[in-house]
Design goal:
globular, 4-stranded mixed β-sheet, 27% strand, Uridine Diphospho-n-acetylenolpyruvylglucosamine Reductase, domain 2, 3 domains, alpha+beta, 29% helix, disordered N terminus, Uridine Diphospho-n-acetylenolpyruvylglucosamine Reductase, domain 3, binds flavin-adenine dinucleotide
């Protein structure tokens, strides 16, 4: 691809930068795509430009071209941990749809666009144990690495050995687990904003029957505790790290319950009546309703408990 550098073009004339990017990838880039369709909350405005990437080569080329033209970009997976602003996102939104999975001995390498659950299933089918904890967690492998997704005391950082990432310049490399500086629902990638294209986990041999019955057991527990509520993004706030608590965390839901969260609603947004840390779009919510409800909850918790809740859900786009 031969793009003339136009780094100043975007700031003075975003439309021509958009057009040039579209011309460079004519069949790939769509315009004004509703991001509500790409977020489990079901709210949010459009992406000026939107693309589903299916190969790492495509991803690198797109990033390089967007940089040359000065077009900002965001990467999303399945949108199950996202709050998209009502005004949407300027620039390019890249939806990671890179697929593929390979088993080699005790290791499974899986592309970032695959469901996290596909990794759980693959491990179970080949008789490898260690992924059961992730049964029923929504989203893609890419989202799971960035947010160190986990449950029941385990997280992806416990099993991941390395991942392939693409930096903001569009160059690919492989990094071992320590690079990611994993923490509770966090990794270094939240700061560097590098993009995950695949992850490799190393598991232990196990009994297939035992693995799949543990997976089923977890799915049943999740189904009872967190039924598949439409229009939510799971837990809105992070739990509070506290070694004296089970799994080392004081549930944010407990603190929220104590400030009467379950009775609260704001515009079309409300708190799920069975779980004080889950915010729901009851059908008519705007992203702003959800944002303001979250702000009310944080204020009340700070006032009553002296604890400032941190958001697990990632907000993107232009908020008021
Ligand atoms: C009902 C429900 C229950 C849930 N339960 C749990 C749970 O038990 N445990 C848990 O940890 N989470 C849970 N979640 C949250 C969510 O499933 C996870 O955070 C998931 O890993 C998000 O993946 P995603 O592909 O949807 O990411 P998205 O929501 O699309 O994106 C989230 C963030 O990751 C970034 N991102 C996504 N893909 C990439 C990539 N390839 N490279 C770089 N950055 C990327 C985005 O830029 C964004 O910042 C739940 C969500 C729901 C709706």
């Amino acid at each position: 691809m031969n793009l003339t550098p136009h780094s100043s073009l975007y700031s003075s004339d975003p439309v021509s930068a958009y057009n040039r990017l579209k011309e460079a990838f004519p069949r790939l880039i769509e315009t004004q795509v509703s991001l509500a369709e790409h977020s489990s909350f079901g709210v949010g405005g459009p992406a000026d430009l939107f693309v589903r990437v299916r190969t790492t080569g495509q991803l690198c080329e797109l990033i390089k071209a967007a940089n040359e033209l000065g077009v900002p970009f965001e990467v999303i997976g399945a949108g199950t941990n996202l709050l998209v602003a009502d005004r949407g996102c300027r620039g390019l939104v890249i939806c990671n749809c890179i697929m593929g999975l390979e088993v080699s001995g005790r290791r499974i390498t899986i592309a970032a666009g695959e469901d996290y659950m596909a990794l759980v299933n693959a491990a179970s089918v080949v008789g490898l144990t260690g992924m059961e904890f992730a049964a029923g967690i929504w989203g893609t492998v890419g989202g799971a690495v960035v947010g160190n997704a986990g449950a029941y005391g385990s997280e992806i950082c416990d099993v991941m050995v390395e991942a392939e990432i693409v930096d903001r310049k569009g160059d690919i490399r492989t990094e071992k687990t320590p690079y990611f500086e994993f923490d509770y629902r966090s990794s270094k990638l939240k700061k560097t904003r590098e993009i995950v294209v695949s992850a490799t986990v190393e598991l232990k041999p196990g009994e297939k029957e035992q693995i799949s019955s543990r997976v089923q057991e977890i799915l049943t527990i999740r189904g009872e505790k967190h039924p598949r509520i439409p229009n939510s993004a799971g837990s809105f706030f992070k739990n509070i790290v506290d070694p004296t608590q089970p799994y080392g965390k004081l549930p944010a839901g407990k603190l929220l319950d104590e400030v009467g969260a379950k009775e609260l609603s704001h515009g079309g947004a409300r708190v799920y009546e069975k779980h004080a840390n889950i915010l729901i779009n009851s059908g008519t919510a705007t992203a702003q309703d959800i944002r303001e409800l979250a702000d009310i909850l944080r204020e009340r918790t700070l006032e009553k408990h002296g604890i400032r809740l941190e958001e697990e859900v990632v907000s993107i786009g232009e908020f008021d």
